[in-house]
Amino acid sequence: MFMFSAGRRRFSDLSEREILALAISAEEDDGRIYDGYAERLEADYPATARIFREMAKEEDVHRRALIGEHERRFGPTIPLIRREHVADYVSRQPIWLVENLGLARIRAAAERMESDAARFYELAAKRSKDAGTRRMLGDLAATEREHGHRAEVLTGASLTDEARAEEDRTARRRQILTLVQPGLAGLMDGSVSTLAPIFATAFATRDPQTTLLVGLAAAVGAGISMGFTEAAHDDGKLSGRGSPVKRGLASGLMTALGGLGHALPYLISDFWTATMIAFVVVFLELWAIVWIQNRFMETPVLRATTQVVVGGALVLAAGILIGGG
Do residues 194 and 85 share a domain? Predict the structure, then answer.
């Protein structure tokens, strides 16, 4: 029988021969995925790469056992059937094709793969009427379930606390270079560079609506400019700073957010109420930047305060003087 999509079968409609063939192809695919992860992680995360090499070897052991069982029952010719040919079989999102895939996502994906494999073998064992096949599939399911997640088991055997800590530090550095650093630069630019035009307009016109429009234009324009600049000037391959798209989005969004913070109070129709709230927002923005610099960039508080708070105060004062004059 066929599902609504032509050519795709239900799992319940597969024969035992087709189930074994599906298991063989799934083990082959998973082994190649693990080898791909290992190759990708080799340079920066050698201990985790070694774990994935071991996992790929385990997949090959399972594959050979399944092929042997197929030969015993059905002969050497294995039907071609893959996950995508079965409508209700668990699908694999091709995250292994994603550039700059993070270490945490790779580990999580491996654990999901093992959980999916265990569930498949449990269902396949229930479908089998041959004692030998049922026993083998049940053993494979038990192996997966006994250890919870094979990735965690191999981590305990192959990834020492020291190695895992070093790899986590490397992953944190990557996150800082790809998201935190561009986002912080954007937040600083949006929070500081838009102070002068927004408050100059506010004190020149005393009109909240005009100030709001100028603030929105300045924030959105600065966000677009910073986002494109960050994405275009470095593809991340030589610098190791990661995906230019992620960096551009982080920089652009945080730039716009920094400018919008002290523009949105001018939704309030009363000029002085809106301005007082905007002053409070600016104060909070600048000290938030100081905290982020100290927390993620390990910048000393005094130096960060001098760079951000003093600099921001000077830009704010310039805008007020220009607008008020």
Answer: no
The distance in angstroms from the start CA to the end CA of the chain is 82
Would 15 be classed as within a structural domain?
Answer: yes
- Is 25 in the same domain as 152? yes
Residue 152 sits in a domain whose CATH number is 1.20.1260.10
DSSP result, 125-150:
HHH--SHHHHHHHHHHHHHHHHTS-H
Domain count, the chain: 2
Residuewise pLDDT in 10s, the chain (325 residues): 334 445 678 888 899 999 999 999 999 998 998 898 888 888 777 888 888 888 889 889 999 999 999 999 999 999 999 888 887 676 666 766 655 666 777 877 787 788 788 888 988 999 999 999 999 999 988 876 764 455 555 555 455 566 566 656 666 666 666 777 788 788 888 888 888 889 999 999 999 999 999 999 988 998 898 888 877 766 665 455 667 888 888 888 988 988 888 899 999 999 999 999 999 998 888 888 888 888 777 778 888 888 888 888 888 898 889 988 6
Kindly tell me the burial class for residue 274, based on how many C-beta atoms sit within 10 Å of its own C-beta (0-12, 13-18, 19 or more). buried
